[in-house]
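Dear Dr. H.,

I hope your travels went smoothly. While you were away I took the liberty of generating a structure for the chain from your last submission, since the lab meeting agenda had it listed for discussion. I wanted you to have the full record in hand beforehand rather than looking at slides cold. The sequence, exactly as received, is reproduced here:
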Amino acid sequence: MSAMFAALREVTRLEVGVRDLVDIALVAILFYLLLTAVKGTRAVSMLWGIFILTGAYLAAQFLDLITLTAVLREMLFYLPFVIIVLFQHEIRRILAAIGRTPLLRWTSVLSPRQVLINDIVLACETLVSHRYGALIVVERDEGLRTFVETGIPIDARLSYDLLVNIFTPGTPLHDGAAIVQGNRIVAAGCFLPLSVRADLSTTYGSRHRAALGIAEETDAVAVVVSEERGALTVAEGGRLHADLDRRGLRDLLLELLLLGRTGRQA
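The corresponding predicted structure, in token form, is as follows:
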């Protein structure tokens, strides 16, 4: 009993500094993320089972139950591997939640733009394979509100499935342009100004002239899928980048949208 009181006196004499508070706060955050990730899933019951097993091991040690302690010790030795197998989905959710925290969000500021580019490229590849025409305009620094108001409001997160659905023939929004702001499609079926350049080849139709027109008036990037030729073209800075393949389209969009290159003609 005297040893217990001595231990309590030692604890009360400990000084708590800023480092200890930070340590406790980080552990609390870790447990909060863990509980948030497993809340409402089958992992909750498994988590309780792990706590009970750990408590039984500590109780067996305290009561000096040698055989039970040895058995539980062996079970707890393999517990980390069991957790990884059983909680693999929850672990992914925890890591994703950590990546979305405000303190760490700066490390992945480029990811939404990369996801947007990948979805556009994948959708364009599908549209090309079906010979479906499309016109996708991505806003950069200059606002496109005037042109957004000519279309049908959508305001939905850009995705491969949504783009393919919009430009599938027979749908109400098939004709016109889909305008992207940030990572969202704000409107579809939008009307764009047609370029009046006389030197533009006659092989280019109204979609290409509309893409070139918006690229002449603003710093937007317009992606065109040709319905007749099944070709990919990008308009930016008052010029056309024609006959792109999937890799060429992705590299160009990365350069224009991720690295921020501009090519406006005077």
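Two observations you may find useful: The chain has two domains: 14-107, 111-258. The first strand starts at residue 134 and ends at 138.

With kind regards,
E. W.
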